[in-house]
Amino acid sequence: MSEAQELDQLRQQIDALDQQIQLLINERAKCAQQVAEVKYKYAEPGSLVTFYRPEREAQVLLNVMARNEGPLPNESIARVFREIMSQCLALEEPLTIAYLGPHGTFTQQAAVKHFGHAVTCAGQVSIADVFREVESGSAQYGVVPVENSTEGVVTHTLDSFYDSNLYICGEVTLRIHHHMLVKSLTDNVQRIYSHAQSLGQCRLWLDQNFPNVERIAVSSNAEAARRASSEVGAAAIAGEAAAELYELEVRNANIEDRPDNTTRFLIIGKQETIPSGDDKTSIMVSSRNQPGALYNVLAPFHEAGVSLTRIETRPDHSGTWNYLFFIDFEGHKNDQRISPLMQRLRDVAVDFKWLGSYPKAVL
């Protein structure tokens, strides 16, 4: 048998498999439509029907990776199913997702990574605007950055939870690669635009390569790219999406100081999330301004054997030198060992607010 004959046989096999896959995807889509019909059928008159279930999607993706036998790696096969689920959900309920914009930001990439491409992404000027869009019902969910492995916490996101009634419904992590973008590779760089967080994530590289060039913080990396595309002598630090959107050249690639540079984003919405089996909980605690205040907040976690994943401190709006603790820990508020822990915290805290229990990031 010749090479051409062997390749022809394999291509025929691929075509047959593609046909089977297409039929099965459409069968799955029909099931999704039937799910919507059943939910409407049993919904209380005037009640809000919920279609997007973060815990269910997390379970599906975990199951996909658990039964994967290759040769595709777990994350790759999970991304394929992520898109299938996104398209099927759109048949039940088209979603609008508010994110920190404009178009081409890392937050938009995080939104697409979490929800897939079958959603409408609505860019917002600020984190506060993302919260407002979801609170008003203009968007069902929002995506906001909360912390970066190099630069730490995004304080505006934490502060927005103080007066908000929204819940954290999920999280997504995104590896962040920054590039130096210019209109032309021959340009003499006189100023560099980027978001303050991105400038901080590339600080050492900039100190070594452009120590005397002005660095200007703007509202987003996409805005930095827009300015670089229209100003002589301007450069931007941004990602590939912004480079493509504004037709910029990559002068230097992957200039972040840490190769493992990662940003964590939160999914915010109006619904509470039931346990998925692998969850986190986020709370906001205000302690009394007295010796041992932090110990009193942390001791219940030690006694319950619950692992903290993050703790941050922010000024309390109630008075000078009073502080709020933002704490993330493993488990769901409905778990057997978490429920009494939450009650202990309510007893020792001046103020206590549960921000959400949600599935850990899968992808």
Q: Give the CATH superfamily of the largest domain.
A: Chorismate mutase
Distance between the termini: 43 Å
Tell me the structural class. alpha/beta
CATH architecture of the largest domain: Up-down Bundle
Query: Helix-strand pattern, N to C?
Result: HHHEHEHEEHEEEHHEHEHEEEHEEHE
> Number of helical segments?
12
What average pLDDT do the residues reach? 93
Number of strands: 15
Please outline the major beta sheet.
6 strands, mixed
Question: For the CA atoms, what is the radius of gyration?
Answer: 23 Å
- Give the CATH class of the largest domain: Mainly Alpha
Percent range for β-strand residues: 25-35%
Helix content: 40-55%
CATH topology of the largest domain: Chorismate Mutase Domain, subunit A
Shape: globular
Low-confidence stretches are none
Total tally of structural domains: 3
Description:
This protein is an alpha/beta fold. It folds into 3 domains: 20-42 and 49-175, Chorismate mutase (Chorismate Mutase Domain, subunit A, Up-down Bundle); 179-260, D-Maltodextrin-Binding Protein, domain 2 (3-Layer(aba) Sandwich), CATH 3.40.190; 273-359, ACT domain (Alpha-Beta Plaits). It contains 12 helices and 15 strands. It has helices at residues 3-42, 54-66, 74-92, 106-115, 127-136, 155-160, 196-201, 203-209, 221-230, 240-245, 293-304, 338-348, and strands at residues 96-100, 120-124, 141-148, 152-153, 167-175, 179-182, 191-195, 214-218, 234-238, 249-252, 262-269, 279-286, 308-315, 323-330, 351-359. The strands form 3 sheets. Strands 1, 2, 3, 4, 5 and 11 form a 6-stranded mixed beta sheet that branches. Strands 8-7-9-6-10 form a 5-stranded mixed beta sheet. Strands 13-14-12-15 form a 4-stranded antiparallel beta sheet. A hairpin with a 3-residue loop joins β3 (141-148) and β4 (152-153). α1 crosses α3, α2 (54-66) packs antiparallel against α3 and α11 (293-304) runs antiparallel to α12 (338-348). The protein is globular. The mean pLDDT is 93.
